[in-house]
Amino acid sequence: MTTETNNSAVEFTPDRLEKANEIIARYPEGKQKSALLPLLHLLQEQEGWTSPEGMDYVARMLDIQPIEVYEVATFYTMYHINPVGKHVIEYCRTGPCCLMGGEEVYSHLKQRLGIETGQTTVDGQFTLKEVECLAACGMGPVFQVREKYYMHLTNERVDEIIDELSK
Amino acid sequence: MAIKILTEHINVPGIESFDVYRKQGGYTAVEKAIKTMTPDAIVEEVKKAGVRGRGGAGFPMGMKWSFLAKPEGVPRYLVCNADESEPGTFKDHYLMKNIPHLLIEGMIISSFALGANKSFIYVRGELMYVIHILEKAIAEAKAKGFLGKNILGSGYDLELVVQPGGGAYICGEETALLESLEGKRGNPRNKPPFPAVKGLYQSPTVVNNVESIATTAWIVNNGGDAYAAVGIGRSTGTKLISASGHINKPGVYEIELGVPVEDFIYADEWCGGIRTGHKFKALVAGGSSVPILPANLALTLANGEKRLMSYESLSDGGFATGTMLGSGGFIVFDETSCIVRNTWNFSRFYHHESCGQCSPCREGTGWMEKVLHRIEYGHGHQQDIDLLVDVSKKIEGNTICPLGDAAAWPVASAIRHFRDEFQWHIDHPSEATQPGAVYKGEMALV
Amino acid sequence: MEDVKPQLVKVTIDGIEVEVEPGTTILQAARKIGPAVAPPAMCYYQPLKGSGGKCRACLVRVAAGSAKDPRPMPKLVASCLTAVQDGMVVENETNPQVIDARNGIVEFLLLNHPLDCPVCDQAGECDLQNFAFDHGKVTTRYEEDRRTFEKQDIGPYIQLHMTRCILCYRCVFTADQITNKRVHGVLGRGDASEIGTYIEKAIDNDFSGNVIDVCPVGALTDKTYRFKNRVWFTKPVDAHRDCPTCSGKVTLWYRGEDVIRVTARKNEWNEVEEFICNTCRFDKKKTSDWTIEGPTKVSRSSVISANKYRADTIKPSFGQRLAAAEYKPIHDERDTSQLDIQQLPPERFAKVLPSAMEPEP
Ligand SMILES: Cc1cc2nc3c(=O)[nH]c(=O)nc-3n(C[C@H](O)[C@H](O)[C@H](O)COP(=O)(O)O)c2cc1C
Ligand code: SF4
Ligand code: SF4
Ligand code: FES
Ligand code: FES
User: Fold this and answer.
1) What is the CATH number for B401?
2) How many CB pairs lie under 8 A apart between chains A and B?
3) Are residues B300 and B152 in the same domain?
4) Which of B281, C48, C157, C337 is the 20 to 30 A CA-CA neighbour of A106?
5) Into how many domains does chain C fold?
6) Number of domains observed in the structure of chain B
7) Do the domain assignments include residue B281?
8) Residue B137 beta carbon below 6 angstroms from any ligand 2 atom
9) Ligand 2 binding pocket includes B205 (Cβ within 6 Å)
């Protein structure tokens, strides 16, 4: 009944592997588990999400049990534990952004993409996620795509950004 | 012109680079500290400065430093809390992004003072671009001999590690942060033991906020007494305030503690007044966790005096009529805002961010959110308001970490000051659920 | 002789004084006095390092921190983790704030609990049932949907009924501390946390069955026992065998002539005394596998124990508790902690049983 994952499926590219080793070396002797969050980010950057195979790979790299990785990946909201579209739009839904019209702009965004929160467009271009305060409340409404912050959103601005990203 | 301790050079073009920062007098504090001062002397200056933790709790930084246990042969750690996730707060983001070397300089001074040879900056993972900025700044400082082995020929070694979070507000709580830094789930630890005795990797650890650590450069350059001369009473120095909501000029402002709340809201130098054509309804002065105040209480104390932007003045009157300075997340609400909706929104935030370890917070935050959602969407019952007050009381003070309190206070305070508005939602559901509907009954708008 | 003894510290709990070694927690000190003053513990488990602090069922008020610093502590504290100080004064059942907080904890723990006791294998020996009985209210104020999960087999022997789980983390500590490889853990966050393996995996190693014994509720159950019986129809008997893997000291649960379940032995706080291996637990179900020692001294939390239905341990009103607490130091015979329940003749049970049915004042 045990469904073991295919261990050889995921590996870091050479430059990421180098980066991973550099990260692991940052921590004191025996504390390499500290590298877990950064390595999961690295994995997600490469794979688009934190796949079970990838998590098992990270577990082997750090010499920890796979469950220790799953526990962490499911705790933190930035890790996508399911496959996602090419662009993940992480939209701030918290109070201060809402005061700046965040909810109206969000309705527009959903309409524009034709999807609801948590869904991916049929062409696989966009996944929509709601997140909490992104520490940019004075510049709200705000969403984030990968590392980039898009601020002072309006319906028009959202259309422009989606057009830009769709290219 | 008001004194600027942190942001004086923030608008200088290129200040994010080592060379420009250095030209503006940067890293002189590191030189002074490492070449001419002992670690204890630095701790002494920080104590004299009276600077209080800028992460929210306001605990005196010098005192925290002097509690650090120093057992022989055990490493000590300094961890900078750059998890900044409290709704309404975006000052650390602003500081790190624009003037990263100020934090690096503060980290070097503080690490030296505490005897730490490896220090961490834990940045919320969403700010990955800021992490790259910090890593670049660290590499520059290292190339110039301000970091790494044998700093400025003094024999003192220091490595700085920038650690990304993974998306969890709770990792701003210092022990959850340490767990996260150890590669675990961000479950806060039971205290005692406190981090000063058993922190990162079970070693003595100091955790301080970005803004707190950044002040040390100025303190070393100008002395603790000079710092203490700024501000008012026990609220010494300046504070970065993140201003958001219905004001004309949202943004981050460095103010001398003691500025009247009224001036801060209405002066052109700062918020520039309530959004044109609107009236001031309510204020959350220190990030979403602190009690919300109606406009009149936000501006004046119970005795009629002006309320000031200071730890003492904002908390004047206790929770009955006061609030807290907290992290300085200053959220302004005008008369178009629905307090019930906002309370539900904050409540959902805490529900979403609870780590789930202890039962009052895990279960109670979800319950409050659901009841508030029910009221907001026109399905409230008469007993719901009292139910919310009771549930918030059963959470408050009974949890492992202060997130439980942080979830309880916004609900309790909104009901304390805006009970009629909740009642209106329950009594007039069809009216209250109209798009854009807001309670228009009696209240103190300014 | 005298000087090798550690200096004992004196603590007062609900008006009763007790002397304990320094470093003892309030909970352990209270347990030393006896079940009537021992705070309930839903997550703390003495044999498991790092357990405790999570459920908050054991909250007490410290009315005086120590003889040196007699100030009260500002908040209620978790008695399972807070060490006693000399001269500390603790209020447990005698403090209305504590009773109120525990009331809240029961309510919180039951919010998302399915309350399926009639079909739950744990019924009759469930810590949550006991806690709710002692500290709960009769009605619920919660009217939203409860969180539900599908039940799940984790290996051939253990079934996980996540809906019943109270997230005490005991099973996680157990897997960490007494098995060589942990494959299950806590996934997700907040009230969406769940115990699981993430990817379908069998919990499969020699000591995995112990997670069943440590679980305070019916979330982890023995598949070889499930629905076979109700615990109150069974007869527990202590037995041992020469086991190459574990101590081989177990409790056999008989229905008639058949061994229907094997568990580790538990102390009066329902804590496992010695963890046992899966062979003893799941494979040795014939009387001939075992050397019988005699009837088990039944755990306090088991319905088989008449302890629960004795008049003096039944939930009295707050006032009665207060009186009982003050009454106790003089009248030692009220201390039932030393009584061996098994020794009592059956008539004795029959006689005191009706008082359990009396309505709450
Ligand atoms: C739920 C919660 C979230 C917190 N978030 C932050 C945060 O994002 N940044 C921060 O500096 N402190 C935060 N704190 C406060 C820290 O626990 C800690 O007190 C602080 O980092 C200490 O630094 P300071 O003394 O310099 O303020 C938080 C506390 C709690 C309870
Ligand atoms: S109060 Fe909430 S966030 Fe803090 S430890 Fe408990 S469950 Fe976790
Ligand atoms: S399954 Fe049982 S032992 Fe494990 S956490 Fe849940 S209640 Fe505790
Ligand atoms: S509320 Fe949206 S960034 Fe803070
Ligand atoms: S037993 Fe102490 S908190 Fe659970």
Assistant:
1) 1.20.1440.230
2) 150
3) no
4) B281
5) 4
6) 3
7) no
8) no
9) no
pLDDT digits (tens, 9 = 90+) for C94-113: 999 999 999 999 999 999 99
Q: Which of A1, A52, A67 sits opposite C182 (nearest CB)?
A: A67
Same domain? B251 vs B382? no
Residues B347, B418 within the same domain: yes
Rounded Cα gap, residues C170 and C43, in angstroms = 7
Q: What is the model's pLDDT at position B15?
A: 98
More confident: B191 or C347: B191
Listed in sequence order, the residues at least 6 apart from B305 whose beta carbon sits closer than 8 Å to its beta carbon are: none
Q: Which of B64-78, B240-254, C304-318 has the lowest mean pLDDT?
A: C304-318
- The C-alpha atoms of residue C169 and residue C44 are separated, in whole angstroms, by 9
Residue B79 within any structural domain of the chain: yes
Q: Tell me the domains of chain A and their CATH numbers.
A: 14-75 (1.10.10.1590), 87-166 (3.40.30.10)
Q: Domain of B79?
A: 18-229
Nearest beta carbon to residue C185 from set A1, A3, A67: A67
Distance from the C353 Cα atom to the nearest Cα atom in chain B, whole angstroms: 33
Q: Å from B114 to nearest chain A CA?
A: 18
Q: What is residue A65's DSSP assignment? A: -
| pLDDT tens-place string over residues B303-312 | 999 999 999 9
Both B53 and B180 in one domain: the answer is yes
Q: Is residue C221 part of a domain?
A: yes
The residue from C61, C81, C103 where one domain ends is C103
pLDDT tens digit sequence for C195-211: 999 988 777 788 999 99
**C323 and C281, same domain (yes or no):** no
pLDDT score recorded for residue B7? 97
pLDDT in tens, C147-191: 888 888 888 899 999 999 999 999 999 999 998 889 999 999 999
Cβ distance of B165 and A76 shorter than 8 Å: yes
* Whether ipTM exceeds 0.90: yes
Task: Tell me whether residue C166 is in a domain.
Answer: yes
Q: Tell me whether residues B93 and A135 touch, CB distance under 8 A.
A: yes
Q: Which residues of C touch A (CB under 8 A)?
A: 153, 155, 181-189, 197-202, 204
Nearest CA to ligand 1 atom 1: B403
Look at residue B242 and give its three-state secondary structure.
strand
Q: Is pLDDT at B425 greater than 60 in this prediction?
A: yes
Same structural domain, B353 and B319 = no
**What is the pLDDT averaged over residues B102-119?**
98
> Cα(B174)–Cα(B206) distance, rounded to whole angstroms?
9
Contact B397 C75 (CB under 8 A): yes
Is B52 contained in some domain?
yes
Minimum-distance ligand 1 atom for the alpha carbon of B89: 8
3-state secondary structure A81-149: CCCCCCEEEEEECCHHHHHCCHHHHHHHHHHHHCCCCCCECCCCCEEEEEECCCCCHHHCCCEEECCEE
The answer to whether the CB of B186 is under 6 A from ligand 2 is: no
Assess whether B130 and B225 both reside in one domain: yes
**H/E element, C153:** strand C152-153
Tokens, residue B223: 């002395």
Handedness of CA C88, C94, C95, C99 (dihedral sign): positive
Q: Chain A interface, mutation test: which of B181, B200, B244, B438, most A Cβ atoms within 10 Å?
A: B244
Q: Nearest residue of A to residue C155 by CA position?
A: A1
Determine whether the interchain pair A70/C185 forms a contact, defined as Cβ–Cβ distance below 8 Å. yes
Structural tokens at position C261? 């379940």
Which domain covers residue C351, as residue numbers?
318-357
Does C1 fall in a domain? no
Q: Is C85 helix (H, G, I), strand (E, B) or coil?
A: coil
More confident: C336 or C348? C336
Statement: residue C340 has pLDDT above 50? no
- CA distance linking residue B158 with residue B145, whole number of Å: 11
Predicted model pTM: 0.92
Report the CATH number that the domain containing residue B256 is assigned in CATH: 3.10.20.600
C169 and C209 both lie in a single domain: yes
pLDDT, tens only, C222-249:
998 866 677 778 899 999 999 999 999 9
Distance, in angstroms, between B1 CA and closest chain A CA?
24
The answer to whether A75 contacts C182, with C-beta atoms less than 8 Å apart, is no
Residues of chain C found within 8 Å of residue B355, distances taken between Cβ atoms: 189-190
